Amino acid sequence: MARELVNELTWSVSRDRLFRQCRRAYYYNYYGSWGGWDAAAADERTRRIYILKNIQSLNMWAGGIVHDTIAEALRRFAAKTEPVTVEALRQAARSKLRRGWLEAVNREWLVSPKKTNLFELYYGNGATVPEELTEDVKTRVYGCLEALATSPLLAEIIAAGYMNWKPVDTLDAFVLDDGLKVWCAIDFAFFDEAGMLRILDWKTGSEQPEELKVQLACYAMFAMRKWKAPLQRLRLAGVFLGDTARVSEYPLSTELLADTENIIGESIGKMRLPLSEPEKNMAREEDFPTCDVPRICGRCNFREVCPAITGSKPKTEAAPASAHEE
Question: Parallel, antiparallel, or unpaired: how do β-strands 246-250 and 234-240 relate?
Answer without folding.
Answer: antiparallel
